[in-house]
Design goal:
0% strand
Amino acid sequence: MFSIIGKLSHKAREPVTPEKAKQVAYELNDWFYSIGGMCADTSTRGAIRLLRRACLTWGKQGSRPSDFYKWRNHALLLLRNDLDLQGLEELSDTEDITTLTKRVKYEVALATKEEVAQETKDEIAK
C-alpha cells in the first residue's frame, strides 16, 4: 500500500497527473480485495476509500481536488497506526539537518536503551 500511495508524492519519480491519479485509484481498489485490504482497520479502509474517490475525481475532472493531500496524509497516518507506528512526521527539504540528526539519534538511543543526554532531550522538546 505504501508503494501505491508513494506514487502520489510530490517527489515521485513521475509527476502526478490526472491519468496517474486514475491509475492509482485502480490500484487502491485492487488493494481493497487483497490481504492488506481485508486486514486493515475500518478507519484506515475509510481513509483509503476517500483517497480513491479523490484520485478518481482528479482523473475524471482533470483538476486535483482540494482535499486530495488531506486524504493521502490521513491514509498514511492510519496505515502507520495499523502497524503500531506513531505519527506522520513532516520532513521537508528545508528542515534543519542538525535538528533532524539529533532527533534520529534520540530515537535510536531510546530504541536501543542507550543513555540519552539531557541536552538532546531538551532540544527535541523545543
